[in-house]
Amino acid sequence: MFFRKQKLRKEFDEKLVVLMRETKGNWQQTQEIEGLLDDYDLETIVQRKIAESKHFYLFKEARIRKILLR
């Protein structure tokens, strides 16, 4: 019974790490796009803030779960 719980936890921890890497890449990509724009584009700023919020939420969840990123 305990082995299944550990297996599920490990599986979802791995999924969380993969998702964190994806959101970090998305966040960095939107930062680069925002830096390349000459004018003030509200939609790009909103996309960057959304990506940043998602990444930091997942980071907080990983810290609560005590997951080490390798």
Report on the architecture of this protein.
With 70 residues, this protein is mainly alpha-helical. It contains two helices and no strands. The longest helix is centred in the first third of the chain and has 35 residues. InterPro entries: DUF2508. This is YaaL family protein.
Fold blueprint:
Blueprint: H1 2-36, H2 42-65
Quick take:
This protein is mostly helical and 70 residues long.
Tally the beta strands: 0
Name the beta content range: under 5%
Oligomer: single chain
State the helical fraction: over 70%
Tally of contiguous helical segments: 2
Q: Main beta sheet, described?
A: none
Order of helices and strands: HH
What distance separates the N and C termini? 29 Å
| Secondary-structure class | mainly alpha
Protein name: YaaL family protein
InterPro entries: DUF2508
